[in-house]
Amino acid sequence: MRILYHLPLSPYARKVRLVLSEKRIPFELRVERVWERREEFLHLNPACTVPVLEEENGLVLADSYAICEYLDEAYPDLPLLGRTLGERAEVRRLVAWFDGKFAREVTENLLYEKQMKRLLGRGNPDAAAIRAGYANLKPHLDYLGWLAETRLWLAGNALSLADLAAAAHLSTLDYIGDLDWSLNESAKDWYARVKSRPAFRSLLADRVSGVNPPVHYADLDF
User: Fold this and answer.
1) If you write DSSP's letter for every residue of 151-198 in order, what string do you get?
2) Pairing state of beta strands 28-31 and 3-6?
3) Distances from the Cα of 24 to the Cαs of 75, 76, 78, in angstroms?
């Protein structure tokens, strides 16, 4: 069985989980506490980050985008990177937006400061960073809402890796209660559609010790 090393609140690991589930590729989840720097895991990924995918033939892949590209090429029946050159460029642009710009301006300022910083032994949360994360959230939701209003899915007419990347980041923030869905109704409606897909079920079942999600987290009609 292929193994995906992950952390429940890693948006990058969640993105890969969604891709695997959308493509109906069986896999086993294995939590990897990267702050422990386990020697066996360092042999798999010297960067000591998740996600890491270990295929049944022993092939080991690290970095969420590299893994997703590999999966889309190895299992092409359901393409998630687009079919035309233009579609693929737009999907890649939006994945870079959410895994780069959104991650820096929102996810890292909220999820990292409030949850991961302590686990990694890097001190106390930075109140200024948290304030910046909340301030940055609304314009990002407004942009996501605009995409949802003008397209069937974020990158065009078909569900793509762009939707899964965005939903992965938002789901982690939703889990820690840091999303005010009243900020943008169109973004909320789009997220409800993604959240209702069968591939999302395992994410909604996630529970992290000491951190309880809000009641609406697993509610499909929130």
Assistant:
1) SSBTTBSS--HHHHHHHHHHHHHHHTT---GGG-HHHHHHHHHHHTSG
2) parallel
3) 10, 12, 9
CATH fold for domain 85-197: Glutathione S-transferase Yfyf (Class Pi); Chain A, domain 2 (1.20.1050)
Cα 176–182–185 angle (5° rounding)? 115
Neighbours of 116 (CB within 10 A): 17
- pTM value > 0.85: yes
Residue 174, C-beta contacts closer than 8 angstroms, at least 6 positions apart: 213, 214, 216, 217
Q: What are phi and psi of 73, to 5 degrees?
A: -80, -35
Query: Do residues 71 and 58 make contact, with C-beta atoms less than 8 angstroms apart?
Result: no
In angstroms, rounded to a whole number, what is the distance separating the alpha carbons of residues 70 and 57? 14
d(CA 168, CA 171): 5
Q: Are 50 and 7 in contact (CB under 8 A)?
A: yes
pLDDT value at 63 more than 90: yes
Angle at CA of residue 81, ends 63 and 149, nearest 5°: 115
Predicted confidence (pLDDT) per residue in 106-150, tens digit: 999 999 999 888 777 788 899 999 999 999 999 999 999 999 999
